[in-house]
Design a protein that fits this description.
Strand order of the largest sheet: 1-9-8-7-6
Number of domains: 1
Shape: globular
Number of strands: 9
Helix content: 10-25%
Distance between the termini: 22 Å
Number of helices: 3
Structural class: alpha+beta
């Protein structure tokens, strides 16, 4: 199923949405199903990415490099590498896929959880945020699907 990526840039953070829902909501639902009891309270325990966690603030290179493994959610503490949710990005002529979803430090099995996006729409969203960050390096400009 093709889904729609949304990116909201606000107050130095980059919120990822899928079909208008914050990504963290989908991830929390999956994690609540796969995590055993004592760790269940950690399900969905993520924060938005800081734009400074994106090398050189180059959103296109970060989210549209074929074969790259990238954090799409960071830790609630504000440090992306503390407790990230990672995905493998595959960019094709018609589809962009996020697969091999996993937590950076927890051994949780996400099974086949992932997303497929239409390449043109995906790159348009990524490029729109990339342009804002490049034209206004200190921007807190609002952009996104809601």
């Amino acid at each position: 199923m093709i889904t729609r990526l949304g990116l909201l840039l606000r107050d130095g953070t980059l919120r990822v949405t899928v079909d208008g829902r914050p990504l963290v909501q989908d991830v929390a639902g999956v994690e609540r199903r796969i995590v055993d009891h004592p760790d269940r309270s950690l399900a969905g325990d993520y924060g938005d990415l800081g734009v400074d966690d994106v090398p050189d603030r180059d959103v296109r290179a970060y989210l549209a490099t074929d074969g790259a493994e990238r954090a799409v959610l960071g830790c609630v503490c504000g440090m992306a590498d503390c407790g990230p949710l990672l995905v493998r990005i595959t960019v094709g002529p018609h589809e962009v896929r996020w697969s091999d979803v996993h937590h950076g430090f927890r051994d949780w099995d996400y099974g086949g959880f992932g997303y497929t996006f239409a390449t043109d729409a995906y790159l348009a969203e990524v490029d729109a945020v990339d342009r804002v960050l490049r034209s206004e390096p200190n921007s807190t400009h609002l952009r996104g699907p809601w």
